[in-house]
Amino acid sequence: MNTPADAIRGLYLITDHGDNLVARVEAAVRGGVRVVQFRSKTHAPEERLTLGSALARLCREQGIPFIVNDDLELACRLDADGVHLGQDDGDPRAARARLGAGKIIGVSTHNRDEALAAEAAGADYIGLGAMYPSGSKDIEHLAGPAAVAVVKACVTIPVVAIGGITRDNAAPIIDGGADSLAVISAVLGSADPALAAAELALLFNRRQPFPKGSVLTVAGSDSGGGAGIQADLKTITLLGSYGASVITALTAQNTRGVTAIHGAPAAFVAGQLTTVLSDIPVDVVKTGMLFSSEIIATVARQLAAFHKRLVVVDPVMIAKGGASLIDTDAVTTLKRELLPLTYLLTPNIPEAEALTGLAIGDETGMEAAGRAIGGMGVANVLIKGGHLAGAEATDLLFDGQEFKRFTSPRLASTNTHGTGCTLASAIATFLARGEPLPMAIARAKEFITAAIRLARPLGSGHGPVNHFEAAREANLGRC
């Protein structure tokens, strides 16, 4: 039998006191927030009531719980779905008597004993924290992620972890059994609350059975099977997610190169996208060869409404054998229409040079290109350093503020067909499985390095990487 507290799952947003609150919360809900708690400590009474009414209406329209923080009177006036009480903010029994049986009551706790006491007093869920030090308040009780599993083993009601949670430190909390993550600045402090919420909400896929999440690849077909849609679907499946596809072009291709390309009509590309996205719950979209300016514009228009916002773009321009895979007008359209929608762009050195007009000869040049591409509206850019010399192959991730290096041994091999497609698809897959972006990149780089090292000669040109053995060696599809 379902109870009201069964709705306390996933990403739990606590409001701040900043400007444009309703608009920011609305964006966060579009990104994946599943519970909103209205916390008002500084607003005047009338402003508190106005903001609360607007947020309550938003939550009703979206079908998600609206919880009022600490203020039982305000919860009643707003007909909120429930109230959240601190340890010193009242008895859950009294709140139940006032609100009624159908409402949700949460209680803040810091340890196992407080959690058990809250459940015994009739709480529907508990807040547990703090997980990490936080800028929102002084931390007196630092429970830490390890406390989640301890408390979860003792109570039967949902556990909402709170305190200092970000995209990059949330995974251990979910793995410990938390039903929900409560955040404030990690979402509302972001310049793009919808994207920040989408990143955090997707982390819950890590607890799903295989296949974990789903990836839609929008790319061209490689008749030789080493790159394009074929490489993408191999990668997505072997690494443990579900793969769907939209084909933008057909190629006559083998290990020696591309002999012919037949682009799909843009309207048919749009039809494929609409059909898939209207039915299959896609978590991440990965694009590869988009072929023409018209197709790029069509894909951008369709993806503008993709509410999860995680779009990984591999800006495929040149085939391994040297053939152009994109027409002359397409680069301009790519930069103008698709890059501002891009969560992660994965250009190699020649592609980064084509996009920026910069010459790249070392990591300093890669950093300059990363900053330039970030200025085009891309949320994150991974400049791949495989075309540079040296004993190591280093990729640089720029997140708009700082760089992170991902390094692996450089391998001497001619069997590298499909490396770009495979790496981007692997990143997309790990994102869909619930890994935060830095970890998704690290695991994908591990996978592609193994796939190159384990590649076996096939054909007389640039042979494909070995997707199967790389996944089996690292046990990546089952971990």
Automatic annotation (TrEMBL):
One of its GO terms (molecular function) is magnesium ion binding. Mg(2+) binds at residues 70, 89. Residues 11-187 form the Thiamine phosphate synthase/TenI domain. Binds 1 Mg(2+) ion per subunit. Its EC number is 2.5.1.3. Residues 222-466 form the Pyridoxamine kinase/Phosphomethylpyrimidine kinase domain. Keywords: ATP-binding, Kinase, Magnesium, Metal-binding, Multifunctional enzyme, Nucleotide-binding, Thiamine biosynthesis, Transferase. InterPro entries: Aldolase_TIM, HMP/HMP-P_kinase_dom, PM/HMP-P_kinase-1, Ribokinase-like, ThiamineP_synth_sf, ThiamineP_synth_TenI, TMP_synthase. It catalyses: 4-methyl-5-(2-phosphooxyethyl)-thiazole + 4-amino-2-methyl-5-(diphosphooxymethyl)pyrimidine + H(+) = thiamine phosphate + diphosphate; 2-[(2R,5Z)-2-carboxy-4-methylthiazol-5(2H)-ylidene]ethyl phosphate + 4-amino-2-methyl-5-(diphosphooxymethyl)pyrimidine + 2 H(+) = thiamine phosphate + CO2 + diphosphate; 2-(2-carboxy-4-methylthiazol-5-yl)ethyl phosphate + 4-amino-2-methyl-5-(diphosphooxymethyl)pyrimidine + 2 H(+) = thiamine phosphate + CO2 + diphosphate. Pathway: Cofactor biosynthesis; thiamine diphosphate biosynthesis; thiamine phosphate from 4-amino-2-methyl-5-diphosphomethylpyrimidine and 4-methyl-5-(2-phosphoethyl)-thiazole: step 1/1. 4-amino-2-methyl-5-(diphosphooxymethyl)pyrimidine binds at residues 37-41, 69, 108, 137. Its cofactor is Mg(2+). The keyword Transmembrane does not apply. GO terms for cellular component: cytosol. GO terms for biological process: thiamine biosynthetic process; thiamine diphosphate biosynthetic process. 2-[(2R,5Z)-2-carboxy-4-methylthiazol-5(2H)-ylidene]ethyl phosphate binds at residues 134-136, 164, 184-185. Belongs to the thiamine-phosphate synthase family. Condenses 4-methyl-5-(beta-hydroxyethyl)thiazole monophosphate (THZ-P) and 2-methyl-4-amino-5-hydroxymethyl pyrimidine pyrophosphate (HMP-PP) to form thiamine monophosphate (TMP). NCBIfam families: HMP-P_kinase (TIGR00097), thiE (TIGR00693). This is Thiamine-phosphate synthase. It comes from Geobacter argillaceus. The gene is thiE.
